[in-house]
DNA sequence: AAGTTGCATTGATAAATATCAAAGGGCTAC
DNA sequence: GTAGCCCTTTGATATTTATCAATGCAACTT
C-alpha cells in the first residue's frame, strides 16, 4: 500500500525541469541496453523535455496533429477511441515507463485520446528526430521496433480477452496484469489503488460498469480479493490465476 | 464476381520465381512513394524471394523463431493466437499487399499462427536486413513505422468492435471492411467469396458460429445481402452502414 | 456416381450480461 | 466543515448470445 501511495502525491522529480534519460530511473524500461555514453548524450539532447499533467487533463486528442510520442515518467493514463455515433472504447492504461502515441505515426494524426488519470508527467520524444537518430544508432532503431511490436502483441492479448473470455475471467486477467506491472516497477503486486473508475474498467473489458462491480463483489465474497472502492488487495493470486485456465481448473 | 475468382485459381505470377518489388503490381500497397531507382534496386536485392503456400498451410507458427516479415503477394491468410487452456482468437485476415509477422519483432519469436486460407504467395522480407536498409533509406524507415502504426490502429478498431458492438453490428462492420478492402484492390466491393468459415468469422468477431450464421440469415431476410454459403453479395451498402451508426439511425 | 465429411442452417432452451432503478458512500470544491 | 456530486453497490427484470441438438447442403474422394 505504501509504495503505491507515491503515485497519488506530488512527484518527487525535480519540478518543471528536464531530466536526462541517462539519469532517469526508468531507463531500463524505455531504452535499449548498452548505449554508449555518447549515444546516450545524443538521446538526451533529443528528448524535448517533460510535461506535467493534472488529473483529467488530455495529453493529446484524436484529430490533433502527431508530432511526438511520449514516455510516461510518472502517473497513470488511459487511451480511448471515440466514434461519431458515441461509442467509447478504452484501449489501454499506461503507467511509468510505457510509451504513448504510436497510433499517430501512420496518418500523422492522433487517432485516440490520452488522458491523465492522476497527476502525471511525461517525456516528449519528437518523432521525426527520433527516426533520424535511430537511423544512426542501430540499437535505438531496433528498440523502437520492439516497442511498437510489443504494443501489437499487447493488443492481440486484449482481443483474446474481449473475444473469448467471460466477465469474471476478463476482470481476473485485468487485475493480474495490473499486479504484474506494478510488481515490475517495484510496487506491491498484491495491493494497489485503481486509478480508473468502474466505467473505465468496463469500457476496457467490454462490460458495463455494473457487471464490473458485481464481479468485484463476487471475488470478494469468494475471498480472492478485498475491495474498498478503488483500493484493491489481492488475497489469493494463484486462485485468481486459475480463473483464467478453466481447463486446468477442471482437471485439477 | 469475376475479379475475385482470380484468388481461387493458380496465381498468374511466374511460379517459383522471385519477382522484383520494382515490377510488383502491389508496390503501391507495400512500399513508400518516390523511391529512387537505386534504392528500389537495393530493396529488390533485400527481398528473400517468394514462398507459395497451399490452402491450410502455415506460414509461421507461434513459438517459431522470428526472422522475416512477409508481404502477401496473392491469396488470403488468417492469424490467430492460441492459449494453453485452448482458447483460440483469430486476430486478423490478411490479403494482397498486407504485411504479416510484425508480432514477432518484440521477442524474436512469433506469438501467433499465420495460415493460408487459400493457395497463396508471400514475399519474405528478412527483418534484420530491412532494418539495416531502412536506416539508410529514410522513406523506407518511415514507411515501416507507418505500417506498424497502422496495425496498432487497426487493432484498436477491432477492440472497439469487440468491446462495444452487438452481433449484427460486428458482422456488418466485418462485411463493410472486407468490401472496402476488395474495392481498394480493384475487385467488386459488392460481391465476393469468403475465404474463412463461419467459425473463423465468429472467432474474429467474438461470436459463436451459430450466431454468425443467424446474423447472415437475418441480413438476407432484410434484403441487405444475399448469402449462399461463402458467396456474399451486398445488396444495400448504405443501409448496412446505418447498422453501425445507431445514433444516426434513430435521428434519420 | 455415391458415399463421406466437414460446413452451414435452424430451432429450442439455457446462461450470461445489459438495462432500469434506487440508495448509500466518499471525495471534492467551496 | 459541509453540501453536492459522482461513483459504487445491489436488486429486479429484460435482452442478447451461447449451448445443445438435429437436419441439410455441398464439395471432395474413391
Structure, explained:
Two copies of one chain form a homodimer. With 252 residues, chain A is α+β, with helices and mostly antiparallel strands. In chain A, 41% of the residues lie in helices and 21% in strands. Chain A has helices spanning 2-5, 27-30, 37-46, 127-134, 138-164, 167-184, 198-205, 209-221, 237-242, 246-251; strands at residues 50-53, 58-60, 68-74, 76-82, 88-95, 99-100, 113-116, 120-126, 191-193, 225-228, 231-234. In chain A, the strands form three sheets. Chain A has a four-stranded antiparallel sheet. In chain A, strands 2-7-4-5 form a four-stranded antiparallel sheet. The first copy, chain A, has a three-stranded antiparallel sheet with strand order 9-11-10. In chain A, a hairpin with a 5-residue loop joins strand 4 (76-82) and strand 5 (88-95). At the A-B interface, strand 5, helix 4, helix 5, helix 7 and helix 10 of A face strand 5, helix 4, helix 5, helix 7 and helix 10 of B. Chain B binds a DNA duplex (30 and 30 nucleotides) through residues 166-167, 197-199, 207-214, 216-217, 229-230.
